[in-house]
Amino acid sequence: MPVVAEHGFGEFPLEEIAERADVTRNLLYHYFPRGRPDIVLAVVDRAGRQLTDEWVTDQVLPLPERLAANFARMAAHAIAPTDAWRIQRRARAADAAELNEAMEPYIATIVAAIALNHLGTAEPPQLVRLALRGFLAFGETMLDEARVERAQLDQVLSVLSDTLVAAVAAAVSAGGQCQISDSGDG
After folding, report:
1. For residues 160-177, average pLDDT
2. pTM, to two decimals
3. Quick one: which of 22, 33, 146, 186 is 20 to 30 A from 152 by CA?
4. Which residues contact 156 (CB under 8 A, 6 or more apart)?
5. Are 168 and 131 within 8 A, CB to CB?
6. In angstroms, rounded to a whole number, what is the distance separating the alpha carbons of residues 2 and 23?
7. How far is it, in rounded angstroms, from Cα 52 to Cα 85?
């Protein structure tokens, strides 16, 4: 992951990957028959899992606590930025069919978790799902910009939290056909 995150999807040296894995370049082709494209798909999958593992959806916790935990986790990846964050951002920007397909489970997992937190269901109606996918892209971009601008993270996370709550409410109000879970925050 570090090599791909540093060099990009088409530019990383296979020799460096082989050296770090302590294998020959030929053995790389045994496990990744197409070479770079298969390695890229593998690191995109691993990055997506690192970003989505341990997403907090415990309904016992008040919604503000779940929001804070999930935003803090994503912000930690974005602000560093971690290899997982850099890889998934490259994949989102690539607009290649195979990468879009590889990113879909990551996006769907986060959308389902957000819907579960806010609506009590992991399968939101279409309009809500669209709003959450749009929010996710917005949130990722805002976190990247916050890193570049060295913005106050607590303020950025507050804006993201308020924006998410408003996006869910707007989608539900416009015909999303579900109830918003009681957030306990008024």
Report:
1. 89
2. 0.88
3. 186
4. 75, 142, 143, 146
5. yes
6. 17
7. 11
